[in-house]
Amino acid sequence: MSAQRIDGKAIAENLRGRIGAAVGALEKAHGKTPGLAVVLVGEDAASQVYVRNKGIATKEAGMTSLEFRLPADTPEAVLLDKVRTLNADAAVNGILVQFPVPDQISQQRVIDTIDPAKDVDGLNPLNAGRLVSGLDALTPCTPLGSVILAKETLKDLTGKHAVVIGRSNLVGKPVAQLLLKENCTVTMAHSRTADLPAICRSADILVAAVGIPEIVKGDWVKPGACVIDVGINRIDAPEKGEGKTRLVGDVDFAAAEAVAAHITPVPGGVGPMTIACLLRNTLTAFCRQNGFVEVEV
Ligand code: NAP
């Protein structure tokens, strides 16, 4: 048996289309469009690509994209002032500071300074706490995208045993909370978990968010499971030529594909969902800030 590949690119495109339609309808009704501000500190090449792609997707969805680029030696106080200015700007509905930030800046202080109502990355402790409490919250984008993929694939997740490998605030913990909200029975695994392969083998839904290339082997996967691979790892690919690299996930895709019923590829699985969910959060934040009825997309 070969698993069905979950087409994150197509699902994300579809979601972005629905968001664009909702933005158009809201503009027609209220004469306003959502605004997303992205702040980049420094010259990190990968971050520049992410920020550019976010800007393009924001405009494609009919939203206003504001980009702020600050030099790598920006003092923390200057960045925090920038965030406070954006907090106070009514035309800005969502704020995203691209991480990582240079060493002189505390990532946590940046997260703490963003107005929770505009925290479209969902990392502010207020949003994290609201998610745990089962209240409306802006939710981190990659976890949200991962769970949407599982729901699009399996429809009802009720009663499934979900194993989440990884317990970061950015991915593992919010994924677990979202799966709990979908009535899964959730097990969280991490670097100190005893007999990880056995725990993974009991998973109907296996989410890997570790950051170790292909750590999840084929025989860790329960036959018929749904595998969501969040990992993005660049490894050497001498078969493509000297100095060449390729992207792999945290799951040994070829081996797991032979056992699972559904699996996300890397690239083309969870990755495209992250920007789509950023737009979704910006739309949600815009509706809440303006007192508009929230659009289900
Ligand atoms: P992270 O903060 O480094 O967390 C990694 C987690 O994996 C930790 O909880 C760690 O456990 C656990 N872990 C490490 N080694 C392990 C092992 N041998 N066995 C079991 N668990 C182990 O990473 P992250 O930010 O959550 O990201 C995880 C992966 O997702 C990375 O590959 C990252 O590139 C990718 N990612 C993708 C997207 C996307 O858009 N698709 C977005 C964000 C992240 P401890 O807590 O015990 O140390």
UniProtKB/TrEMBL annotation:
Pathway: One-carbon metabolism; tetrahydrofolate interconversion. The keyword Signal does not apply. GO terms for molecular function: methenyltetrahydrofolate cyclohydrolase activity; methylenetetrahydrofolate dehydrogenase (NADP+) activity. One of its GO terms (cellular component) is cytosol. InterPro entries: Aminoacid_DH-like_N_sf, NAD(P)-bd_dom_sf, THF_DH/CycHdrlase, THF_DH/CycHdrlase_cat_dom, THF_DH/CycHdrlase_CS, THF_DH/CycHdrlase_NAD-bd_dom. CDD domains: NAD_bind_m-THF_DH_Cyclohyd. NADP(+) binds at residues 166-168, 232. Belongs to the tetrahydrofolate dehydrogenase/cyclohydrolase family. This is Bifunctional protein FolD.
